[in-house]
Every structure is written in C-alpha cells, then in structure tokens.
Amino acid sequence: MSTALLSIRDVSVGFGGVKVLDGISIDVMPGEIRGLIGPNGAGKTTLLNVICGIHAPHQGDVLLDGTSIVGLKPSRIAGLGLGRTFQTSQLFRGMTVLENLMTGLHRRTTAGMLGAAFNLASYREEEERAEEAARKALEFIGMADFAERPGTALSFGQQRVIEIARTLIGDPKVVLLDEPAVGLSINRLAEFDTLLRRIRDEKGVTLILIEHVIRLVMDVCDQVTVLSSGRRIADGPPDQVRNDPDVIEAYLGKELRARHSAS
Ligand SMILES: Nc1ncnc2c1ncn2[C@@H]1O[C@H](COP(=O)(O)OP(=O)(O)OP(=O)(O)O)[C@@H](O)[C@H]1O
C-alpha cells in the first residue's frame, strides 16, 4: 500500500473562539489531483493556509512526505517542496513575465541580496539557472512568447496560469491552487484541464485545488474532499461525492433556503 504524500490529521483551527476547522483528516496520495470544495466560508482557504504554514492549527498535525511541517515557517515548508497560488493575482508590478517567474527560484536560492550587490559569480550562476528554469516553465505552459511582457498587463486568467508556472520552477512535490480557474473563459477551461493533468503526469506534481467551478473539479480530480462549516462531510472519487446526500444538502440546501427567504 502506498503512503500519503500529504497527510492532514485531525486538524482544528479557531479564530476568536469560533471553530473554523473541526477535526479535518485527509490523505493525499502521490500523483493525485485532489479537489477541495464546499460552500463559501466552509474553511477551504483556511485549510490551505494551515498546510503552507500561514496558520498554526490548534490541534492536529500535517505531514509532508512523512515529516511533520506544523510550526515551520512558510518559506521552510516551501523549501521542502510545497508550492502555492492564491485567490488573487500575486504577480509583481514593474516586472516582466520572465522576471516574475524567476522569483519562484530566487526564494529558494542562497546567493541572495549580498551576492546581488557585489555581483558575485555564485549570484550570476543562480541568475542564469533561474532564467533557464523560467524559460522552460513558460514553454511548458505554452506562453514562451510572453516572456518580455509586463506581468500585470496580461489578462487575469493568464496571470493565474503564470503563477502556477512560477510554483513549478521550484520543483515542488505538492502544489496548492486556490481557485485557479477564476477569470478563465469556458473555452479556456478545457485547456486548463489538460494543463493540470500535464503538471501531474509530466512533472510528477501532486495537486490540491480549491475550486468553485464544479465541472472542472469533477472532470480533472481523482479524489474530492467536501468541507461544510469546517467539517469534512464527504471524501472520495468525483462520482461518489457528486451523489452524496450530505453534499447535495450542503450546496442545494443553502440555495433553496436563499430562494425561500428572497420570495
Ligand atoms: N484570519 C481570520 N480571522 C477570523 N476569521 C477568519 C480568518 N480567516 C478566515 N476566517 C473565517 O473562517 C471561515 C472560513 O473561511 P475560509 O476563507 O477558509 O472559507 P472558504 O471555504 O475558503 O470560503 P470561500 O469559498 O468563500 O473562499 C469564514 O467564516 C471566515 O470569515
């Protein structure tokens, strides 16, 4: 039996006495695309923030490749092979697409500011390595022609794809994607499906994605976890989750109640 690459064990988080995550356990296997869905406020982003070290859980543990990462700084967790994108675009203003991508490797290199200031050979080598990795990542996502354009001049959907590419140049084991399909047109969604599968199959990266575009989740994910009000209410293959009565109630129950109170 293979062991989980990412294991979330009985994690609880509260803010100001309000429990936002309540005893969440999830095992994500290597090479899996895992969907994380649930109504607004279910706790999905909070869970990603726990995994990448932004929030410390009040209870429970998170293991990456068998090692506990709770209590480590986000930069250290990133160095252990965990990449992340956010709900809003995080590209740097005043930088080209290529330079934005290179920052994905700079965070992990060692020559740093002093090296840059003194133009040390080690710094120049790292720059070359970062540029090569950035160009490869751009080619991988089919956007090599965009290298010299200002990052923030791209469409919102393109910026999101660039951000995913930026996580890849650090050679991560796991990448967390927070609503990556926001801003993508219906036509682009099919291409996006393919990109996620290629990241898994060609780069060997395990993906966890929060997504409100349920069609994308059901098409591309191997396993889906559903949160509602901080609890895990379902977990399994897309077809099983889609027909789960608790999931239908969590989504439709809310919708029906809203319609009722509006009438
Ligand atoms: N730093 C914080 N301080 C206080 N409350 C917070 C904080 N972060 C999140 N919350 C609350 O925790 C709950 C879960 O929020 P979270 O953003 O994790 O939900 P979500 O499932 O990602 O929602 P959405 O789909 O709308 O992004 C919400 O009620 C939110 O207001």
From TrEMBL:
UniProt-listed Pfam families: ABC_tran, BCA_ABC_TP_C
Keywords linked to the UniProt accession: ATP-binding, Nucleotide-binding, Transport
Sample GO molecular function, one term: ATP binding
SMART domains given in the database record: AAA
Keyword field contains Lyase: no
CDD domains: ABC_Mj1267_LivG_branched (cd03219)
InterPro entries tied to this protein: AAA+_ATPase, ABC_AA/LPS_Transport, ABC_transporter-like_ATP-bd, ABC_transporter-like_CS, BCA_ABC_TP_C, P-loop_NTPase
Chain ranges of the ABC transporter domain: 6-254
Annotated Gene Ontology cellular component terms: plasma membrane
Source organism, top-level taxon: Bacteria
PANTHER family in the cross-refs: CONSERVED COMPONENT OF ABC TRANSPORTER FOR NATURAL AMINO ACIDS, CONSERVED COMPONENT OF ABC TRANSPORTER FOR NATURAL AMINO ACIDS-RELATED
Stated name of the protein: Branched-chain amino acid transport system ATP-binding protein
Organism: Stella humosa
